[in-house]
Amino acid sequence: MNTRMRAVALRAGAAAALAVGLVAVAGPAYAADGPDVAVTPISLHLAKGVKEAKAKPFQVELRNFGNAAASDVSVKLDLSGLKGKVGYVTPDGCTKSGPAAYACPIGDIAADQDVVIGIPLFNANGKKGNGGSFSITAVVPGDTNEENNSADVDVTVEAKTYDLTVWAQDIYADVVADGDEVGEEARTPVAPGGTAPLDSAIFNHGSKRVVGIGYSVMLPAGASIAAMPENCIVWEDVNGIICEDDEVVLKPGEVLLPEISVKVADDATAGVITDGIIDARALEPGATDPEQPGDEARAATQEQRKELVDADEADNQARFDIFVGAAPTGEPSTPPGEPGEGGGGGLPVTGPAAGIIGGIGALVVIAGVVLFLVARRRRIVTVTPDA
After folding, report:
1. Which of 197, 249, 334, 360 has the most CB atoms around it within 10 Å of its CB?
2. Which residues form the signal peptide (predicted)?
3. Spatial separation of the C-alpha atoms in residues 149 and 62, rounded to whole Å
4. Among candidates 222, 231, 313, 328, which has minimal Cα distance to 275?
5. What's the angle, vertex CA 384, arms to CA 132 and CA 125, rounded to 5?
6. pTM, two decimal places
7. 8 Å CB contact between 200 and 287
8. Which string of DSSP letters, residue by residue, matches 22-56?
């Protein structure tokens, strides 16, 4: 995979698309005292030609809008409504509860935190169109609003094309920027004034390669960009960066790992700085990357460029939080006479960090292991197809 990076000026069209993507996340709403877990579909489309070995994790968000942690959460999946165009991989760790029905443990979801579940789907018969639907229901003891606990997810199979999906891990001091959470169970908060990597990944879960990726990062108040690839520019208006790599080539099942690190403000208080965002879009084919037979992503005609579009832009964005610890003992959080660098603050940590069961990364995806994602702001559990 070609991952050369060059400093380039971001095209106006790509910048506008990324800007639109970054403002798509609404702020949290709060319910009555207690947990309030809402089920919201994210992924809606699947590219024609996606094989079982590289099934796309169809993302569904479980977000706790309540003011108390949700404990012992599980989900019920009913996949019987999927038509012949769409197949699924049985989630590992789930208990079969009926024909094409499963019960899957999730664990705890802290207040104002989310879990993203990815149900692995693929194009079973090589045809596009209406792929049917599946239903998902969150089972939450003590939920204060059960009306938002279920969703029916319609699946549409689009033309054969690429399909970018974006993943990001919460920021902790001991995170490694490798596109997965394996071996990173310590979860040490970042000290005020400290830096840590933003572990993120941009996947191609489609059936065609894509040439050229633009991505942007927006940070909340209380944090700033400490380091970024040379092909990025600072986006001061939203406290973030915009990046372009017009030479990267992502084949189906491959991943791009941006190298970005974040600095926590010197005056940040212990807690959680919420709702950082990373968003990705495909660029036009790079002029230095010659067309290859059968690859529409490299074609030069305007008609072909119009036809090859992202199969599902709804999952091109991921959110992440920054967990902040206390200032070092005996040292003020802001040195005397020096101004702080941001608002900091954030909500106090109201629930324990979840344990990590599995991981996601380039080697996992390229090897064809299909994923059942469970993310506490991207906590993950791997699955494999039935034997």
Report:
1. 360
2. 1-31
3. 9
4. 222
5. 35
6. 0.72
7. no
8. HT-PPPP---SSS--EEEEE---EEETT--GGG-E
CA separation for the pair 386, 384 (Å, rounded): 6
The one-letter code for the residue type at 267 is D
Tell me the CA distances in angstroms from 146 to 35, 39, 107, 138, 142, one per residue in order.
10, 10, 18, 9, 9
Summarised one tens digit per residue, pLDDT across range 243-270 is 998 888 888 988 899 999 999 999 999 9
Report the Cα 82 to chain-centroid distance in Å: 24
| CATH match of 1-26+161-353 with 2.60.40.1510 | yes
At 23-77, the pLDDT tens digits run 444 444 555 689 999 999 999 999 999 999 999 999 999 999 999 999 999 999 9
| Residue 31 half-sphere exposure toward CB, CA atoms < 13 A | 21
Phi-psi region of 265 (alpha: psi -120 to 50; beta: other; left: phi over 0): beta
**Does an H or E element contain 305, and which?**
helix 302-307
Note whether 1-26+161-353 and 31-159+354-387 share their fold.
yes
Domain ranges across the chain: 1-26+161-353, 31-159+354-387
Report the CATH fold assignment for 31-159+354-387. Immunoglobulin-like (2.60.40)
Show the CA angle centred on residue 170, arms to residues 22 and 338, nearest 5°.
Answer: 85
**Residue range 310-363, pLDDT digits in tens:** 788 889 999 999 999 987 655 433 333 332 333 332 212 222 222 212 222 322
